[in-house]
Amino acid sequence: MNTLDDFFYSLKKIIKDRLGISQLPIQINNEIEKLHDLWKNRKKNDIRKEYTGTLSDYNQQEINLIGGTTIRFTYDNDIIRKIINDKKNKAQKKSLRDLMDNILSENYLNSDWIYEIASYLRPNWVHIDDNIILIYFVPMDFYFIQDGKHRFAEALSKQDLSKELNVYIVSSDDCLRAMPYSDDVLLYGILCKIQNMLTSLGLQ
What we know:
By secondary structure, the chain is α+β, with helices and mostly antiparallel strands. It has helices at 4-19, 26-40, 77-86, 96-103, 106-109, 112-118, 149-157, 182-200; strands at 58-65, 69-76, 92-95, 131-137, 142-147, 164-171. The relative contact order is 0.19.
């Protein structure tokens, strides 16, 4: 598995390739180096003082970056639910087909988690509710299932594409207080700054 160092090096190469240039502008190169140094010089990853949860119910989401680097963000489900309640988000009725065709990316749907969950689904599995929580991950412009993967995988295994689920959608920008680890918050901020940089270059 490649490291975040590989990600920063790959980022420079990809920007040059997409812009069709052999050398990065000094300002862009310095900005990337500054973000890289921010990551390299971070303090020990620990539980943030601002985090108020217990981590009794959480999800780790894998995200693939350019350069073959895979990162994981941890989110506390209990705090996510509180955020949804505080913002008075309403559940949207979404069919399995709508989720697959219009919201969740093909790469996400083809990742290993669906097959892992499907391997231990049981007939007539009783769920407390039909709710699914999606996080829209702003820096990478994609959605992932924060809570309700079993319900989604079960409906998928039955090929019940018309089945409607109660879907709550929350932006990752609103979920910082649900991230217990300092490294995750730092890296999220770095990815947001990289997104803004790529947008300014017309590469997003």
